[in-house]
Design brief:
The complex is a heterodimer of chains A (419) and B (255). Chain A has 419 residues and is mainly β. Chain A is built from four helices and 38 strands. In chain B, helix 11 crosses helix 12. Classes of the chains: A mainly beta (419), B mainly alpha (255).
């Protein structure tokens, strides 16, 4: 029948209409720039309809607050600069399916009431913000009540001096299903901040030199943090009041200070911390009120304290980790131990392995008495590595009296794990 | 003066104990570094050597040497030589020979395996500790004519600085735990040259742990170049004071 005949006129028109509709779907292209159709971004956005693309060519645009209320693509060519001139917000997105890419967004205003940002997304979904450079903004990227948004490969820099005078790099609030990927945040208050954000992924970001936390999240359930680097932030990384956290292959480095932690866990439960590296922090992991966490296959190297597991923690499993070159491997603040510490490699272990199964035959007490003394009486740190203290430590290891007896690794490994 | 120092150094070399001391330090240092794959562990072992062995050997060897050379000193005094000159030559002769043996025994392996800030600091601190304990030996040997008593005082002083002092400090720390004593503790360390030496090395060795709250206070003081200079000045004071006391006593002593 019909399939053997050449296409009829009717069918031809149908195809044409389909093509036309699909063309319509991609929308118009509007050009903004010197000697272009438009010279003002605001004008171009005003003229644009949903699904249009606005190309902005290089130049210095000082247009105050640009508001996007249509589903358009705003694409910068040759890194055009959007300058807030320290007055209010630079770019506000109040529509779904918006793409912002290729801009240098700088100098948002400073205010403590309405948090002016480089880019702020209001109550929208499927917004993509990628390959932008943010410089000297109060908040960098701010998402509120947003869903399915992507923040990808942006570079955010700020020059914070005091905590009160700067906002966060990537700030997300009451959102769901976000993807924060490959961003570099430097010099903000918190590098990445999550509050009430669920089912999201933070992947391959680098947060360095922020004055408070590299990553800070609260009440953000079922999120994953994978392959991020948090280095030299004022107080490291703090995560609180959350369940279902997955932290894989992150690096926590050089977070120095008394209240600085590679990773601070407070009221976290049912979570996984696997394959991370903790290097040269004052404290690698600090746990308080955490329950049912699996800490597995992590590297703790050259930290002041590898882990501080407070007595308020319960049912955590710490297994198959390498603890190498830490001043103290573990410390705690009480005598109650409701966690298990089996099958780790401790470089301070001095036992033997007669049957050569790579498992030490004598249990290991990872808690040195001196770490307890220092916990109770911090100035005692002054006596560290003195002969007196070494003697105390040795005798305590033989016969634990002050340290909790069940703070023990029953199957310490003889060789470090290949992590 | 130079000729007396030269003579004393030759005399010390002749009795071979300093040579053996050098050899032992060298064997220890080399084995410590070649046994451990991690140079930090080697440094930790060497730290104990510097804090215990070096002061012990310095103080006891110098005390005994001083007692044994009393006849030699009397002989020199019959010559037209200044008493100050004699005492000074004895001091420098001992210090130079012991520092040489420390530098050869510990310094060379240290510079080869750990040529870092820690390494240099350990070498400097080891030299200071040697000098301080030679000075303490001069002090303890001039107090009494009785050789057994003099050596006893030297050992007691070593015991006090190496062990007892830390015990007392630990006790005080617990007694005064409710008070803000961090700053005071910095002052107290100045009372013990061994503690001072240990903290100078610690600040380079356990940087991460030292960044904690109290650590930060120590770091704030000892970590700055001013703090390091002050610490070395205090060590110098620990050398000069016992030496000067002994010098005054020696000048007025009826031999």
């Amino acid at each position: 029948m019909a399939e053997h005949e050449p296409i009829s006129m009717k069918q031809f028109i149908q195809i044409l209409v389909c093509l036309f509709i699909s063309f319509q779907y991609y929308g118009k292209q509007l050009q903004v720039g010197l000697n272009k159709e438009f010279t003002s971004i605001k004008k171009a956005i005003e003229v644009a309809d949903n699904n249009d693309t606005v190309y902005v060519y290089s130049g210095h645009y000082k247009e105050g607050n640009i508001v996007i209320k249509k589903s358009i693509k705003l694409i910068g060519k040759g890194l055009p600069i959007l300058d807030g001139e320290k007055k209010g917000e630079v770019l506000s997105i109040k529509a779904n399916y918006v793409l912002v890419s290729g801009f240098k967004i700088q100098k948002s205003g400073f205010a403590s009431l309405n948090d002016p940002c480089g880019v702020k997304v209001y109550d929208s979904h499927h917004v993509i913000i990628e390959r932008n450079i943010f410089d000297d903004n109060f908040f960098g990227i701010y998402l509120q009540y947003s869903k399915h948004c992507v923040v990808k490969n942006n570079k955010l820099t700020a020059y914070a001096v005091e905590e009160q005078q700067i906002g966060n790099g990537i700030h997300c609030w009451k959102s769901d299903s976000l993807q924060i990927i490959g961003n570099k945040v430097k010099g903000h208050r918190d590098g990445i901040y999550f509050e009430f954000v669920t089912n999201s992924v933070i992947w391959r970001n680098i947060a360095t030199d922020n004055i408070r936390y590299g990553l800070h999240f609260m009440f953000s359930h079922s999120d994953s943090y994978i392959s991020n680097i948090f280095r030299n932030n004022g107080a490291g990384v703090a995560v609180m009041f959350t369940k279902g956290v997955k932290m894989f292959h992150n690096t926590f480095e050089e977070n120095w200070g008394d209240a600085a932690y590679g990773l601070m866990l407070k009221e976290i439960s049912d979570s996984h911390i696997i394959g991370n590296t903790f290097k040269r922090n004052t404290t690698g992991i600090y746990m308080e009120g955490t329950n049912r966490i699996l800490v597995e296959r992590n590297k703790f190297e050259s930290n002041g304290w590898g882990m501080k597991v407070q007595a308020s923690c319960m049912d955590n499993i710490i297994t198959n980790n390498n603890l190498i070159g830490n001043t103290f491997d573990i410390s705690t603040n009480g005598s109650l131990v409701l966690n298990t510490f089996n099958s780790n490699y401790w470089d301070k272990y001095e036992g033997y392995d007669l049957n050569k199964d790579n498992v030490g035959d004598v249990p290991f007490h990872p808690l040195s008495i001196f770490s307890i003394i220092v916990e109770k009486n911090p100035p005692a740190m002054l006596l560290f590595r003195s002969f007196m203290v070494t003697l105390l430590d040795k005798s305590e290891k033989m016969m634990p009296s002050l340290t909790p007896e069940n703070f023990i690794d029953n199957t310490p490994l003889m060789r470090s794990l290949d992590l | 003066m130079n000729r007396i120092i030269k003579f004393i150094i030759l005399d010390i070399l002749k009795n071979k104990i300093v040579l053996i001391y050098t050899l032992i330090l060298a064997v220890l240092s080399w084995s410590v570094f070649s046994l451990e794959d991690n140079s930090t562990k080697g440094i930790l072992t060497l730290l104990n050597v510097i804090l215990l062995t070096v002061p012990l050997v310095s103080v006891i060897f110098s005390t005994i040497y001083l007692y044994n050379s009393s006849e030699f000193i009397e002989l020199l005094l019959s010559q037209p030589v200044n008493r100050v000159k004699i005492w000074r030559s004895l001091f420098f002769g001992l210090v130079i020979s012991l520092i040489l043996s420390f530098s050869i025994g510990v310094g060379i392996p240290l510079m080869m395996y750990a040529p870092s800030n820690v390494g240099f600091m350990m070498l400097a601190v080891g030299i200071c500790i040697t000098t301080v304990f030679v000075a303490i030996a001069f002090f303890s040997s001039i107090i009494t004519r009785d050789k057994a008593k003099g050596i006893g005082i030297a050992i007691m002083l070593w015991l006090f600085f190496a062990l007892l002092f830390d015990g007392i400090v630990l006790f005080l720390l617990f007694q005064l735990a409710d008070y803000p004593i961090e700053k005071m503790m910095v002052g107290i360390t100045a009372l013990n040259p061994i503690d001072l030496a240990r903290i100078l090395i610690l600040l380079h060795l356990d940087v991460s742990a030292m960044m904690g709250y109290t650590g930060a206070i120590f770091k704030e003081f000892f970590g700055t170049s001013l703090g390091i200079i002050v610490a070395f000045l205090v060590l110098l004071l620990w050398t000069v004071t016992p030496y000067l006391i002994s010098l005054v006593k020696f000048k007025n002593k009826d031999l």
